[in-house]
Amino acid sequence: MTVETLMREEVMEGGLAIDAPRAIQWSSVFAGALAAGAMSFILLGFGVAIGLGVSSASPSWRDASAALALLSGLYLIIQAIISFGFGGYVAGRTTQPAPTPAKIEDDGERRDGLHGLTAWALAVLLGAALLALLGAAAIDRSPMRSSASNTSAAEPLLSYELDKLFRAPRRAPNTDLREARAEAGRILMTSSSHSGVSTDDRAYLVQQVAAVTGLAAPDAERRVDTLIAESKTAINRARRNSIIVAFSVAAATLVGAAVAWAAAVAGGRHRDGEPLPNWMASSNRFHRNPRAMPVP
Questions:
Q1: Could you tell me the residue ranges of all domains in the chain?
Q2: CA atoms within 13 A on the CB side of 260
Q3: Which of 27, 37, 86, 166 is the most exposed place for a label (fewest CB within 10 A)?
Q4: N- to C-terminal Cα separation, the chain
Q5: What percent of the chain has pLDDT over 90?
Q6: Confidence of residue 106 (pLDDT cuts 50, 70, 90)
Q7: Looking at beta carbons, which pairs linking 250-254 to residues 24 or more positions away fall under 8 Å?
Q8: Cα 224 vs. chain centroid, distance in angstroms?
């Protein structure tokens, strides 16, 4: 059974059983999803502006501490709570009440919650589709797709290390180092493996560095060893940040589902002019009976 399936219940009215069709109201779902997306865009932009991000094209950003990475992940969860809570509330508040004369409280909450959950799912799918399109466009426009021999996955990650590896005080003009950089990048990527850079690959890098930069063999060896160690550190930090981002996104998405449901229920209760249910606010008894408030 999908969310598009009509849910029907028998309602007794005047001794006659009538079918009251109830379906997902997509106008409310779209409104909630758009509200959640807009709020998420604002909060993510604010987070990037104040430096709460764990991914950047800057090579120095890879040196961010683990505390900053964890703080950035926590901010993702907080912005998901606010965004999906806002979207779920909009979805629940704009949903029309069920056309039943004898409305059951639990059934109404379930109906509003489903609208909030559907708005959450739509917002997640739209966000994932947008990220996929932006990623595909970035790959298509990347100059690294010029040829397979010049392409290396290490270039975006280890660009600074590759610059240092082939840095030379003097170099002939119009020297093409793309192929050498790509090959060296693929070798440096193995520095984070269990076996590390092999002896043959290290010797080959020393020869390449000596030939391109004009350094003596001992200087070329020291540069290669230094850059291998730095590349391993950079890869490990990038891997750590990727794990934090992936976990934070998954946690934020799951928490957002629960928040969207609860916010939609709250929006439905406010729409009907009723207080929040007991499972959402323990002080509802004070709303229903102000005299029940204890006297200090």
A1: 7-143+241-290, 149-235
A2: 30
A3: 27
A4: 53
A5: 31
A6: low
A7: 251/73, 251/77, 252/76, 252/77, 252/79, 252/80, 252/81, 253/80, 253/124
A8: 36
